[in-house]
């Protein structure tokens, strides 16, 4: 009887170890395989040059990643610019303001945004949002900002609705639920006694949020924002529809652009030369590296936050 | 008292802004859902589910092949991903608890959860599609499995960690061997959480597009053989939406409608399970 | 249900037992004296060991209850009163022994005088002890007050006995030894009644928490 | 000698439809410690939280009756911010804000609009001394409050309440999350605090109530059963119910 | 009259490099309740967990010395499964398994390979009766154990331990997560249990130790300072240190 | 640091104060008797009220400490012993009052005899009380044992006094009243010594937890 127990226990243990090893191997394999696949391009273009060269010309077999990287970074920044304050506002509203009965519905609605597949964001962006941007919002922004000298460069060009701004907006809507729910969880993690004791000292609601709840959750929040940043960086489908796929760098937010992910999605299956493919892999590797780096930082921060609050 | 009035004013403004933000969020949700539902619902009919795509430009036809393909890819991915994810998560939370290795696995899985899915696509492309020389449903399923594993693994680990350690000790103290402790006590306690984790993991990969673009690719024809390129709903939507034909757009909206409704139902189910579990505790 | 109730029951039983033994002792000692049956005295003197034992037990139980059960309010008053009741009842038994010891010597000589007031003292004192312990255990305030009143009767009887004995001594100086011994016996009854009064006072304290004004010292 | 600071008159309290407190009449004496005891769920916390209108943070709560304080009815006061700066509160678990020790203790002063740095410093020091914490933290005033031990945090929270020189401090089971040693420190502190302020304390632990308080109120099912000097209540309660509760003959 | 069931001889215990228990000698008497008291962190739990080798679940733990039990040294036993079915354990928080009440109580029997349905039923009933829970649950044996109240859960856990008829049950602060009423029920149960088994209990609450135990061991910094009949220890301890601890003059 | 220490200090002070007042009372009463200064007696009788007050205070304090501090071990033994010590010292004061009351009457008549043994009894009994209370408060076991030994000396002195007084009575029956009163005075000293012995026994119990064997009853 007991021997059987021991045997079964061993067997079960072995299976679980195996599963873990597989998981780690996959990650290592991804790094190794992508690196190997991009070796050609790395040899050809080097690191510095590839990152800073704007030229992406399959015909001339010259590949520079700068435009894709720029688009990636810009869309992400725009997304964060919209998403962070909105998400915090949502979290504050859900945890501190709205009546209990509405709380569930509200936070659930926001979470629903997160469950909608990115391809649908893309489609919606293309068919529903882009026209609105093109016809109303972007002209309005131009009217507002073009007269201001410093901001002029950001809003030049013909509003098409297929541009950095729209992409950023779509991305931001995608990551809002993510940041908002992390913020909400963190806000809710703040024990009731803490906020109550600030109220008990005569603080207003906003002072309680600002002085107690926000600082209490700041590490977790930061981690959440970074993870969301990673999401935005690597997002493909939501952006692919509304960015215009233009391999050149424009300062203006209402110009087309591309991101690493979009470039991969659009060109991978069509790449005809080995160098082309390798360059695409190179881009993929850069994206992998970027997000890996960001997520590691986030992980570290979240861990620190957890330690702090026990 | 002037100061108090100022504080109260600031309070009002700040709170007002956050109410605005909340309604902005709600606005987007409504905007998206209404768009999808209104445009998609009108395109729903029987042939959507029972007919294969008509040739480009022709009207009629449906997405039967894409539904089936999607189904097959998702099922194969689940068959690979769920066991590995759950077993791996079990290792991290149970046997491997004291090993540095398991903390490494856990961290890596955590990071893997948010790796860009398109990168996974390129990875599978280079290890499966390129060597085999053609796109295949298996490659797509494998890519999805890779995306699924860390999600399930991490939720499994988390759910198992939520089971109070004393509960295990109580079982040990009765003389139970570890695998029985896990099976009888830990899994059971975490059952609802595990199930939700799996559900969400599957739902998540079932809606992925990017990793399928160059793994299972697409196929205008009906097939149940995963060893060749296989259509899937998401990739089909991508192609149709990007395409020039009005009919394609209609089908893309219809497919989106189906996906959104499915996802909504799944997430409601998941929430229901979690609610029941936590209201009991 | 409550553990402390068991312990309190134990205490009550001990107090009751000690009281009944002490009363027996008084009666036996008195019987020995009044009926001149000296053989009874030995018994009384021996029984005192038993009283000492119970006395010890009660004190130990009180310490234990306080250490382990942390009594409060009524329980606490009762338990602390037990310490004092214990002292009082132990003194009752001691006085019974004293009577027996004097009795041994008195009975060796011819009876000095018919015992009239002493038996009365015995009766009242015994009854007081019995009633006092009962009312202590029952927390009976009214009865306790009655008992306290009775103390004066015993005091007066003692004075009467003393006067009478003095006349005997004056009459014949040879009576002096026996007369003095009877004097001490009377005193013993008076002390017994006093202790009964003490117990009655404890009963009132236990029941109400009110400390009854210390009786004024009597002549 | 016992001067009334607050006077509760016929207080009723409702969570929505359910009445939790029934016709409570009670006086809180100045510079005395008043303990609230009673079985779990009897309404002690609910009662305590009426004094600084904590219930107003949530919906559907309703007060009736009055709590008189300097001629005003607390339950009708409009300016809660003002009220709460007069009535401090300390919770079951320590609630250090995520800032430095100094900023924690100074928080109430800053809310009140005290700007003078020197004055703030003085008051912070005084409060920390009053909470018997100064010696332990004087060299690390600017390190995060979260780094303190549980017992120290609780004393810091008390200092924070003291800093604004409240007329009364409400304590809701202030030691039930602490270990015995930290608990005895807080208890000692409580016995000293009444020199400078008035204390109303809820405690689960009858012995604690006995040790730290001058007056004790026994609440049962939302009714005030008995209110007495602590010594009297624990040695000779008037009510049968109180007696049964404190001698452990309940339930 | 007091028959030795387990005999601890010169026990030392190490977590990695740090020694937690030092040269402990102690006899556990059959059908008696032995309480372990001592300040937080003194090693009570560590000591208790030596008896069923709970420490073997974690790495780097090392025992020295012996715990004699029926002529065998527990610390050297190979078959832990067998050992643990002889030595039950109850934890601080109730640990109901996510199964029905019946399955919970029967769990140990099933592990032991008892198959006979009738016998299992009998033993489950007996254990539940022994744990003073039968009347409360006899009509809902097959409903989930998680639906019971905290105090009931704890009694069910005790029944689960009783079902395998252990020679001794180890309790680690079994009431510290319960409310006072549930606590007093468990205490009453403890005083009855010693008729059928032997109890070793860790408690933070000295008064509880006084109430429920026949013998008390006072542990301080991993050393056994005094081991005595409970009554003796609480009224007249031999050691100065014990006296200071039980009179609250510590730290 | 520990709150109970404050309470115990309070108790100690009260016990010490009560003892010193009682001793003063003995000395004043004795002085009044031996030096025939009747004006002193009034003082003694009045002071008894003070003793009663302290007696009450002590009992209340004990109840309070038990209710609020839950003493254990040595503290507990001390506090419970205080209840008994309190009874004993109160009895000492009572006996002093008794002496004063008899003294009032004795001094109305010519001095029967030179006081030789009575002052000795006074000296020893007073010293015993003083020492007993000291050793109780200091938990001094050795000193307590010495005190218990001394009780016999007082007992023997009493017997001597009784013998002597009997000769006076036999000599002249008119002496009887005064002689009897002196007899009661001697008895009072003996009782005082007894109470001192009780306190000494409590000292041993407090210090060691050991109950000293009840003294055997004396003749
Ligand atoms: N927000 C609320 N809504 C409705 N009922 C509540 C609420 N908070 C508490 N109650 C109920 O009010 C009653 C009194 O609760 P309260 O917290 O005041 O009790 P308590 O005496 O402080 O108990 P404890 O000793 O457990 O802290 C309880 O029956 C509780 O169930
Ligand atoms: N897994 C561990 N590794 C290292 N040290 C430990 C471990 N568990 C406990 N200790 C240390 O061992 C000592 C004894 O711990 P133990 O839990 O036995 O104390 P305890 O007396 O039960 O205390 P408490 O009353 O707080 O439960 C403590 O100093 C603790 O810090
Ligand atoms: Mg008298
Ligand atoms: Mg422990
Ligand atoms: O001991 P006494 O009876 O004389 O008080």
Low-confidence stretches of chain A: none
The CATH architecture category of chain A equals Orthogonal Bundle
Main beta sheet of chain B, described?
none
The low-pLDDT segments of chain B are none
Mean pLDDT of chain B: 87
Shape of chain B: globular
Helix content of chain A: over 70%
Largest interface: A-B, 91 and 91 residues
By DSSP (H or I, 4+ residues per run), the number of helices of chain A equals 12
Bound molecules: adenosine-5'-triphosphate, magnesium ion, phosphate ion
- What's the CATH superfamily of chain A, by name? MetI-like
Beta content of chain A: under 5%
Question: Could you name the CATH topology of chain A?
Answer: MetI-like fold
Strand order of the largest sheet of chain A: 1-2
Total tally of structural domains of chain A: 1
Radius of gyration of chain B: 23 Å
The end-to-end distance of chain A, rounded to whole angstroms, is 42 Å
Oligomer: heterohexamer
CATH level 1 class label of chain A: Mainly Alpha
Proportion of residues in extended strands of chain B? under 5%
Structure description:
The complex is a heterohexamer, with 1 copy of chain A (310 residues), 1 copy of chain B (281 residues), 2 copies of chain C (219 residues) and 2 copies of chain D (251 residues). With 310 residues, chain A is an all-alpha fold. Chain A has 12 helices and 2 strands. Chain A has a single domain (68-273, 295-309), classed as MetI-like (MetI-like fold, Orthogonal Bundle). A two-stranded antiparallel sheet of chain A has the order 1-2. In chain A, strand 1 (56-57) and strand 2 form a beta hairpin. Chain B is globular, with a radius of gyration of 23 Å. Chain C has 219 residues and is mainly alpha-helical. Chain C has a single domain, classed as Methane Monooxygenase Hydroxylase, Chain G, domain 1. Chain C has helices spanning 3-34, 39-69, 73-106, 117-138, 141-171, 176-208. The termini of chain C are far apart. Chain D contains 10 helices and 10 strands. Chain D has a 6-stranded mixed β-sheet with strand order 6-7-8-3-9-10. Chain D has a 4-stranded antiparallel β-sheet with strand order 2-1-4-5, with no helix packed on it. Chain D starts with a strand and ends in a 5-residue tail after the last helix. Chain D is globular and about 55 Å long. Chain D has helices spanning 44-48, 80-86, 101-111, 117-130, 134-137, 150-163, 180-193, 206-212, 230-235, 240-246; strands spanning 4-15, 18-29, 33-37, 61-69, 72-73, 87-90, 168-172, 198-202, 215-220, 223-229. Chains in contact: A-B, A-D, A-E, B-D, B-E, C-D, C-E, C-F, D-E, D-F, E-F. The interface between C and F is large, with 39 and 39 residues. One adenosine-5'-triphosphate binds next to helix 1 of chain D.
